[in-house]
C-alpha cells in the first residue's frame, strides 16, 4: 500500500520540543500544562508574546527546532520501518520550506525513518498538499492540521488525524492518538 505522512507534529513532537526550547532560551519555566492547553498551533502565547513576536521567535529558533534533537512520537520510527520492510511505500509530505527540504530529509534519516528520495515531498503549502496526495494516489494519509484535512475530504485516501490539542474539534476524521493504533488499522485492512 501507499502510505503518506505529514512530518511535524504527526511523526515528530515538534511543537512540544520547541516549547521546551523557548523555556530554555527565554530562561522561563512555563509548565508543560500550558502547552497542553493550547488550542492553536502557535506556541508563543504562554510566553507572553504577541503573534508578531511569536512568529519572529519561531523563525529565529527554526534552526534549533528543526535540526537538533526533536523526538519522534513513541513507536513512529519503528512502525514506519516495519511498514517499509513489509513492502509498503512510505511517503512524506511536509510543508517545511523548500530551503529546509534536503536537510530535513537527512535529519529524518539519521533519526531512523525509512526514506526514499522519490517519496519525500517538501515546500508545500497546506492547500498544495492535496495535489500531491491525489497524484500519488495514496491509500492512507496522516496529518495533524485541521486546515490540511479540510482540503482532503473528497479524495479516495483514507485520512487520519494525529491527535493534538488544536484539532480536537474535528469529528469527521478518524484519529490516531498513539502510533500503535495505526499498526492495528493497517493490520485490519490487510486481513
Ligand atoms: Mg504537521
Automatic annotation (TrEMBL):
Which Pfam families does the entry link to? Answer: NT5C
The EC number of this protein is 3.1.3.-
The answer to whether UniProt assigns keyword ATP-binding to this entry is no
SUPFAM superfamilies under this entry? HAD-like (SSF56784)
First-level EC class:
hydrolase
Please tell me whether the keyword Methyltransferase is annotated for this protein: no
Report the superkingdom from the record.
Answer: Bacteria
Q: Which UniProt keywords apply?
A: Hydrolase
Instruction: Give the family this protein belongs to, as stated in its UniProt record.
Output: Belongs to the 5'(3')-deoxyribonucleotidase family.
Q: Which PANTHER family match?
A: NUCLEOTIDASE YQFW-RELATED
Q: Under what name is this protein listed?
A: Nucleotidase
Source species:
Virgibacillus xinjiangensis
Species classification: Bacteria, Bacillati, Bacillota, Bacilli, Bacillales
Amino acid at each position: 500500500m501507499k502510505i503518506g505522512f505529514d512530518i511535524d507534529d504527526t511523526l515528530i513532537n515538534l511543537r512540544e520540543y520547541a516549547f521546551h526550547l523557548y523555556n530554555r532560551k527565554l530562561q522561563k519555566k512555563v509548565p508543560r500544562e500550558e502547552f497542553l492547553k493550547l488550542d492553536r498551533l502557535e506556541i508563543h502565547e504562554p510566553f507572553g508574546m504577541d503573534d508578531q513576536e511569536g512568529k519572529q521567535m519561531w523563525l529565529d529558533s527554526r534552526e534549533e527546532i528543526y535540526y537538533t534533537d526533536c523526538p519522534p512520537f513513541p513507536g513512529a520510527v519503528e512502525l514506519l520501518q516495519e511498514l517499509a520492510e513489509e513492502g509498503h511505500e512510505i511517503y512524506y509530505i511536509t510543508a517545511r520550506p523548500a530551503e529546509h527540504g534536503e536537510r530535513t530529509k537527512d535529519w529524518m534519516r539519521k533519526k531512523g525513518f525509512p526514506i526514499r528520495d522519490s517519496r519525500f515531498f517538501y515546500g508545500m503549502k497546506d492547500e498544495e498538499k492535496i495535489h500531491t496526495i491525489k497524484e500519488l494516489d495514496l491509500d492512507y494519509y496522516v496529518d495533524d492540521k485541521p486546515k490540511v484535512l479540510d482540503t482532503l475530504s473528497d479524495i479516495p485516501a483514507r485520512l487520519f488525524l494525529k491527535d493534538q490539542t488544536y484539532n480536537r474539534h474535528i469529528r469527521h476524521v478518524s484519529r490516531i492518538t498513539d502510533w500503535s493504533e495505526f499498526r492495528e488499522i493497517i493490520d485490519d485492512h490487510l486481513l
